[in-house]
Amino acid sequence: MTTTDPTVTTPTATPTTVDPTATVRPPYRITPARVLRSEWHKLWSLRSTWITIGSAAALILGIGLIMGATYTSGGGDSDVDTVILTLYGTLLGQLCIAVLGILVTAGEYSTGMIRASLTAVPTRLPVLWAKAAVFAVSAFTIMFVTALITFSTAQLFLHDTDQSASLADPGVLRAVAGNSAAITLLSLIGLGLGALLRSVPGAIGAFIGGVMIVPEILGMIPYETVETAIRYFPTQAAGALGSATPIPDTATPGAALLALFLWAAASLGAAGLLLRRRDA
């Protein structure tokens, strides 16, 4: 039979005291740099990013080379602006980049990734601003480099024609940069539409119908006020921004850039407002 020695005492656990004034640090800290880095990795880790940007660059460069190689002085395109002629593929390239802008936001809703993003950044709006910033820097840089290569390469075929020009000529470098800025701002409108509609097919339809087709329909209305207003619609402003010489009955480059900026800001502002009010 086992007996217990009454002189031996069993040690008792000392209760842990919690200092109420101590600051509990979260496992991570949200900073603008970290949100930007996250969106950068998400953008460039997707195969669709490489496909759409590669397609846009290939279309702009390929069509530019064809236009330069087949051009003859005094032909049907002799009255076309040199930058517009060599960057004619921009019309198709900007559609590719706009689709990428839509995929950046609407694509994340279709995969459900947006819930993880908003859980990591509960204040929500930094996610949208970071997406727009990363996309805008990437799109402008790549489109500007593509436009410079396309213009310079096409001029190898045009050096002995009436479309011969260099980047140092008045208005040429401004138009090349304006062309890239126009593609970027048009695509930011698409990015905003993707966040508003949360549907890739719906946003693509809204962009093609609302941004590209509606102004053409409104242009048929024979009122001077309507004609003046259409000059500041996105696609019309983009055309004026990418021309080295002024185009009659279009906005000036400065007004066109401001109009495109306001369209993009309105699209992103509406998307940010609804992002704060709707569930993911």
- Biggest sheet architecture: none
Indicate the proportion of strand residues. under 5%
Shape: globular
Q: Can you give the helix content as a percent range? A: 55-70%
Task: Return the string of H and E elements.
Answer: HHHHHHHHHHH
Low-pLDDT residue spans: 6-11
Overall average residue pLDDT: 88
**Cα gyration radius (Å):** 27 Å
Counting H and I runs of at least 4 residues, what is the number of helices?
11
- Category from helices, strands and their pairing: mainly alpha
| Total number of strands | 0
Distance between the termini: 69 Å
What does this structure look like?
It is a single chain. With 280 residues, the protein is an all-alpha fold. Helices cover 68% and strands 0% of the residues. The radius of gyration is 27 Å and the shape is globular.
Task: Write out key terms for the chains shown.
280 residues, single chain, mainly alpha
In short:
The chain is mostly helical. The chain has 11 helices and no strands. It is globular, with a radius of gyration of 27 Å.
